Amino acid sequence: MITRRDFLRLTAGTMTGALGVFPARAAAEPALETTMITLNQIPGICVAPQYVAEELLRSEGFADVRYAKFGTAGLYTALASGEVDLSMAFVAPFITQLDAGAAIVLTGGVHAGCFELFGTEGVRSIRDLKGRTVAIPELGSPHHVFTASMAAHVGLNPVRDIKFVIQPAEKSAQLLQDKKVDALMGFPPVPQELRAKKIGHVIVSSGADRPWSQYFCCIVGANQPFVHKHPVATKRALRAILKAANLCALEPARAARLIADRGYRYEYAFQTMKEIPYGRWRE
Q1: How many CB atoms lie within 10 A of CB 178?
Q2: If both were cysteines, with which of 130, 182, 255, 283 could 248 make a disulfide (CB 3.0 to 4.6 Å apart)?
Q3: Are 90 and 220 members of one domain?
Q4: CA 180 – CA 17 distance, rounded (Å)
C-alpha cells in the first residue's frame, strides 16, 4: 500500500513538470469556500483519476474527501440532488440528464476510449445487432445509452431493432460465453476480463475506432448549486482530477497500485492504465 506521504513525495516532481503547477502560484490562490467534498465510486476502473486524486485533493486544501457509492446509473441522480458534489462519469447519460433539466454542470473532459462492444461470432459489426439480444445492467445506464447511440449512428432503431435484456454486469460475461446473449457493452475491468477468459470478440473499441475515439467518454460533472456556491473549490477539484489523469498516463504501475488499494484487481487496473489515453485530456 502507498502511504499518503509517499504518494505526495513521489508525485510532486512528476506533476509539477507535467502541469506547470508551482507552489508559489498555488499559495497565491484564493481560499476554498469549503474543505469537504463528496465524489462517487463505481465498479468501473476507467474513472481511475478521481480515485488517484484523493491525496491530490487533500493537497489542494480539501481536508474531508468522501466517496459515496451510488453505483453507475444512480450517480446522475445523486449529483443532481447534491448527495454527490462532483464526480467523473460517462458522458452519454450526462447528456440525457441535462436534456431533462437536471441540476448538473459539466466542468471538463478527462479521457476517451474506455468502452468496448463485445459480441459472439455471429456479430461482426454494429449493424449485426439488428434482431439481436444485448445485455445491459439497466435502462438508461451508460451501457444502454452508448449502445443505443452507436446503433442509431449506423441507421438502426435501437428501440425497435435491438432487444435489450437487464442483467447484472457480473453475469453478462457468462451469458455471452453461453451465447444466451449476442453482445454486451463493457467498461473496465469487464473488457480486460473478457479478453483474459477469451470470451467473445471486440466489435467496436472506443479507444481505436472512429468516430467514438474522437469524443470524451468520461467527463467531470458537478452539482449545479455546489458550483455556484463553491467556484474555487470546483476549480481546484477539477485540477486535482486532471493532475491524477496525467499520473495515470505517466506512472501506470503506481496508479494501478492505488486503484488496487480500493479493492480492484491490480492486473486489470494496470491494463486499463495502459490502454486508456489518460494523457490526451489537453487535446
Answers
A1: 10
A2: 255
A3: yes
A4: 50
Strand 218-223 vs strand 163-166: parallel, antiparallel, or unpaired? unpaired
For residues 6 and 88, give the distance between their C-alpha atoms in angstroms, rounded to a whole number: 25
Same domain, 197 and 219: no
186, 116 Cβ separation under 8 angstroms: yes
Which CATH number covers residue 26?
Answer: 3.40.190.10
- Nearest in space to 110 (alpha carbons), one of 169, 36, 51: 51
- The CA distance from 240 to 237, in Å, is 5
**Structure-block grid coordinates of residue 243:** 493532475
Q: What is the residue-level pLDDT of the chain in tens, covering all 283 positions?
A: 445 455 454 454 545 544 444 444 455 789 999 999 999 988 788 888 999 999 999 999 999 999 998 877 788 999 999 999 999 988 888 888 899 999 999 999 888 877 889 999 989 999 999 999 999 988 888 889 889 999 999 999 999 999 999 998 778 999 999 999 999 988 888 888 898 899 999 998 887 888 887 778 889 999 999 999 999 999 999 999 999 999 999 999 999 999 898 888 898 889 888 888 888 766 6
